């Protein structure tokens, strides 16, 4: 599918010029900042000079005082504390973070991560029974629990208190927990709503540190885990998340815990460690533990203090990731064939096969979304029911659409763009029809068309090493603060473009002013024919410095090409 190019509106010239003069930068760069809501010197200073002092007071979060008081009491009285986390990256990093910190202050801390296949997402009955059998006094759930009403009530009946740390959207009522920390609570006035689950847990530890007058600096070694959670969970990298991610990535690059250092090594990750490299290099390996077997392997790796042990555990996790990739590819091919067989005209994809591996259906949903660009749900069988993962296109709330089919579901939860659901297998056909009706009634044609969002048009002559350096200072990039995307019109290839390994387009481009720059497009063999004939084309790209044999040169990273007729 050809992608639409959506160029953002040009900000008011007076605002751009004012900011450009105030901080002495090129107007093209000032325009990028104004697009991000940065219009004066003080806002620019806060954006570029991130500080841990920018973190919000944790006690602005609803129920924080209750949660801190209960946790402090548990530590003081040496009560048995169970850290309960989800099996994905956000959940396992949350568990590792909380256990690491609390074990510095009490010996009575254990953790529990549910089995994806046997227990499913969230707080499970099996997990609560484990807590009851082991004499637990306090459960802290991380990245889950906001809809676990019956499980929390079950624990409460047995005298176990619950602190929920979650960032998912609550239902109409909250579970009967001692404290519920979730910025998305309707009655929570915390200034930042988009924390990861690990981020919410970090705020609890920050509050505990304040109350107990512990050294705040003891929290900073945990930020490598928080950064990994933020990157992997695709939460906005704005506001407080951007601060946590910035300092977490710095920690990850300079002093990572042994488990993360081992993952960096086994993944052969290059420096600098960006959000993108965490998303594609670290996160899948951590996730693979819970996808293919049990996530305890990932938690043990993240908790490891010994480099030798961490290397062995990282190797095991890496092997599971290789198995995950093979399994995923098989299912993706089968799923794409099923979609092709259904024909055109539908607004949604809902597929079910009982034999599909539960651990990879979320990834499969994302892959199908890439190919057909419509709200997608992939279902498999688990514990006698159909369970699935949903992924959505930009601008469409798939969580709300699934909720509109609630009478056919056993349970569901998640975010605007990603959700999970469980239903009886006999309801699949009815759900598929109902979901198609709900989506078709509200989705727009624009949402169903893949698009590249472009920040601004740029002349090649504006680009310099210093220009790129300032863009790099806008990191960390991610949702809400994406790496700037540019378009330049009427370019031509200089000489003969090359196709490296029959996949990657490599060429020099020249604009109408005669400025020449190198460009590369990964996995773009189809674009070779569009540029090889010597005609004009428009090109969308990001900017980077290519470091080859210690020689740094400017390079355009091609995103898309549209040939010109004349």
Task: Please describe what this structure looks like.
The protein is of the alpha/beta class. It has three domains: 158 residues, OB fold (Dihydrolipoamide Acetyltransferase, E2P), CATH 2.40.50.460; 259 residues, inorganic pyrophosphatase (n-terminal core) (Alpha-Beta Complex), CATH 3.90.1640.30; 109 residues, Roll (Diaminopimelate Epimerase, Chain A, domain 1). It contains 19 helices and 18 strands. Strands 3-2-4-5-6 form a five-stranded parallel beta sheet, with helices on both faces. Strands 7-8-9-11-10 form a five-stranded mixed beta sheet, with helices on both faces. Strand 4, helix 7 and strand 5 form a beta-alpha-beta unit. The radius of gyration is 25 Å and the shape is globular.
User: What amount of the residues lies in strands?
Assistant: 15-25%
- What is the count of distinct domains? 3
| Average pLDDT score | 93
Please count the helical segments. Answer: 19
Largest sheet: 5 strands, parallel
- Large-scale geometry: globular
Structural class: alpha/beta
In the CATH classification, which architecture of the largest domain applies?
Alpha-Beta Complex
How many beta strands in the DSSP annotation? 18
CATH topology of the largest domain: inorganic pyrophosphatase (n-terminal core)
Radius of gyration: 25 Å
What proportion of the residues is helical, as a percent range?
Answer: 40-55%
Task: State the assembly state of the protein chains.
Answer: single chain
């Amino acid at each position: 599918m050809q992608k639409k190019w959506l160029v953002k509106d040009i900000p008011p010239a007076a605002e751009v010029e004012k900011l450009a003069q105030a901080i002495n930068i090129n107007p093209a760069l000032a325009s990028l900042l104004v697009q991000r809501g940065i219009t004066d010197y003080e806002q620019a200073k806060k954006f570029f000079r991130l500080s841990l002092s920018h973190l919000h007071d944790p006690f602005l979060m609803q129920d924080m005082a209750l949660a801190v008081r209960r946790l402090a009491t548990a530590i003081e009285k040496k009560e048995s504390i169970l850290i309960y986390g989800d099996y994905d990256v956000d959940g396992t990093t949350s568990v590792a973070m909380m256990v690491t910190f609390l074990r510095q202050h009490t010996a009575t801390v254990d953790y529990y991560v549910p089995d994806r296949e046997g227990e499913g997402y969230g707080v499970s009955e099996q997990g609560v029974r484990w807590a009851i059998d082991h004499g637990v006094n306090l459960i802290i759930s991380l990245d889950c629990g906001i809809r676990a009403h019956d499980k929390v009530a079950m624990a409460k009946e047995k005298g176990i208190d619950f602190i929920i740390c979650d960032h998912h959207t609550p239902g109409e009522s909250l579970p009967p927990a001692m404290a519920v920390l979730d910025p998305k609570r309707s009655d929570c006035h915390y200034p930042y709503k988009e924390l990861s689950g690990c981020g919410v847990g970090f705020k609890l530890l920050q509050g505990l540190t304040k109350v107990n007058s512990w050294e705040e600096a003891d929290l900073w070694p945990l930020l490598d885990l928080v950064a990994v959670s933020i990157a992997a969970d695709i939460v906005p990298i704005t506001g407080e998340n951007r601060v946590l991610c910035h300092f977490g990535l710095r920690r990850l690059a300079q002093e990572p815990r042994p488990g993360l250092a081992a993952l960096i090594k086994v993944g052969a990750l290059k420096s600098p460690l960006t959000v993108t490299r965490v998303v594609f290099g670290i996160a899948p390996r951590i996730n693979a533990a819970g996808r293919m077997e049990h996530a305890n392997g990932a938690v043990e790796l993240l908790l490891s203090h010994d480099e030798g042990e961490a290397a062995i555990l990282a190797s095991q996790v890496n092997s599971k990731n290789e198995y995950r990739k093979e399994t995923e590819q098989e299912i993706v091919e089968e799923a794409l064939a099923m979609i092709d067989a259904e024909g055109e005209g539908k607004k949604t994809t809902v597929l079910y096969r009982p034999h599909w591996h539960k651990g990879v259906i979320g990834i499969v949903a994302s892959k199908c979304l890439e190919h057909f660009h419509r709200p997608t749900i992939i279902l498999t069988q688990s514990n006698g029911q159909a369970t699935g993962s949903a992924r959505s296109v930009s601008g469409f709330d798939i969580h709300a659409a699934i909720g509109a089919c609630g009478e056919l579901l056993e349970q569901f939860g998640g975010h605007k763009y990603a959700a999970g659901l469980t239903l009886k297998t006999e309801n699949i056909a009815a759900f598929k029809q109902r979901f198609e009706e709900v989506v078709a009634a509200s989705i727009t044609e624009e949402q169903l068309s893949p698009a590249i969002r472009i920040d601004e048009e740029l002349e090649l002559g504006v680009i310099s090493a210093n220009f790129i350096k300032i863009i790099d200072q806008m990191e960390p990039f991610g949702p809400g603060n994406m790496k700037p995307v540019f378009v330049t019109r009427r370019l031509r290839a200089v000489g003969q473009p090359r196709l490296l390994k029959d996949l990657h387009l490599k060429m020099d481009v020249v604009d109408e002013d005669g400025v020449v720059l190198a460009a590369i497009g990964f996995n773009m063999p189809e674009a070779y024919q569009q540029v090889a004939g010597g005609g004009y084309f428009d090109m969308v790209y990001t900017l980077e410095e290519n470091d080859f044999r210690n020689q740094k040169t400017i390079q355009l990273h091609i995103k898309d090409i549209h040939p010109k007729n004349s």
